[in-house]
């Protein structure tokens, strides 16, 4: 577990944690023969106070992942007041109900959990409405969440449905198909899971060459994800500690 203790303040804790995460990414890239510049870092800030997000902005980070739409919307509003020059980008990485599509279209730069045509259509309509109401200025980036174990309770499109879903998303005027996202199944070998995801991503790029993003890897398995082509690791615990703080 990652715990932050001692007499240092929160800015110093986060700076040290960020340095350690960057070291892990650099080492994993070196082992895989990859350029560290190919792998982005998305801090997952769910349940954490917006003050932590502001401190991460001070450390140079600009994109943040959230699981809950309402929490993300509130943080986006508060952060815009705390760090008005930051132009932070918010990614929804958790499951999304179709009836929450419109508020998400107001603040999200990317939704990483699109797993059905019905959700894609709801987001497409929501983006059109948000554009008409001047609540956003362009299309919404989306990733197709891939289910690597076929468990519908965990979200994600089945592997054999990714191609048709990708074609559908690409036909939505308000959406931009940018790649895939997945979570390694519980108890599974992460290398095998992420190798399977890399295969899916390769097939996707054959028909959609601009869909280059592979969002995969978290605190426990980011090295395996990088070995298998991840272009973005989503890190919460290693960066922010393992004890959720009250959202404020």
* Uncertain segments: none
How many alpha or pi helices?
Answer: 9
**Overall helicity:** 40-55%
CATH homologous superfamily label = Alanine racemase
| Share of residues in strands | 15-25%
What top-tier CATH class fits best? Alpha Beta
Indicate the overall shape: globular
- Class by alpha and beta content: alpha/beta
Number of domains: 1
- Assembly category: single chain
How widely separated are the two ends? 24 Å
CATH architecture: Alpha-Beta Barrel
N-to-C SSE string, H for helix and E for strand: HEHEHEHEHEEHEHEHEH
CATH topology: TIM Barrel
**Main beta sheet:** 7 strands, parallel
The Rg value, from CA coordinates, equals 18 Å
Count of distinct strands: 9
Can you describe this structure?
This protein has 248 residues and is an alpha/beta fold. The chain has one domain (10-240): TIM Barrel (Alpha-Beta Barrel). Helix content is 43%, strand content 17%. It has nine helices and nine strands. The protein has helices spanning 10-32, 50-58, 69-82, 101-107, 117-132, 162-170, 190-207, 222-227, 237-240, and strands at residues 40-43, 63-66, 89-92, 108-114, 140-147, 157-158, 175-181, 213-215, 232-235. Helix 2 (50-58) crosses helix 3 (69-82), helix 3 (69-82) runs parallel beside helix 4 (101-107) and helix 4 (101-107) packs across helix 5 (117-132). 42% of the residues are buried. The mean pLDDT is 94.
């Amino acid at each position: 577990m990652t715990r932050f203790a001692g007499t240092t303040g929160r800015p110093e804790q986060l700076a040290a944690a960020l340095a350690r995460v960057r070291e892990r990414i650099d080492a994993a890239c070196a082992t895989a023969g990859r350029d560290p510049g190919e792998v982005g870092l998305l801090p997952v800030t769910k349940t954490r106070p917006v003050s932590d997000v502001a401190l991460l902005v001070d450390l140079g980070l600009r994109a943040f992942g959230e699981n809950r739409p309402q929490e993300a919307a509130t943080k986006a509003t508060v952060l815009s007041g705390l760090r008005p020059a930051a132009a932070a980008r918010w990614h929804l990485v958790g499951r999304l109900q179709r009836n929450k599509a419109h508020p998400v279209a107001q603040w999200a730069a990317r939704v990483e959990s699109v797993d059905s045509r019905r959700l894609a259509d709801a987001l497409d309509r929501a983006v059109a409405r948000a554009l008409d109401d001047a609540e956003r200025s362009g299309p919404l980036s989306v990733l197709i969440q891939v289910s690597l174990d076929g468990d519908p309770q965990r979200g994600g499109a089945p592997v054999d449905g990714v191609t048709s879903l990708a074609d559908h998303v690409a036909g939505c005027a308000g959406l931009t198909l940018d790649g895939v996202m997945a979570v390694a199944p519980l108890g599974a070998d992460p290398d095998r899971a992420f190798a399977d995801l890399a295969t899916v991503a390769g097939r996707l790029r054959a028909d959609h060459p601009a869909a280059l993003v592979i969002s995969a890897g978290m605190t426990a398995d980011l090295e395996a994800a990088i070995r298998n082509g991840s272009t973005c690791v989503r890190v919460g615990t290693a960066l922010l500690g393992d004890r959720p703080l009250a959202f404020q």
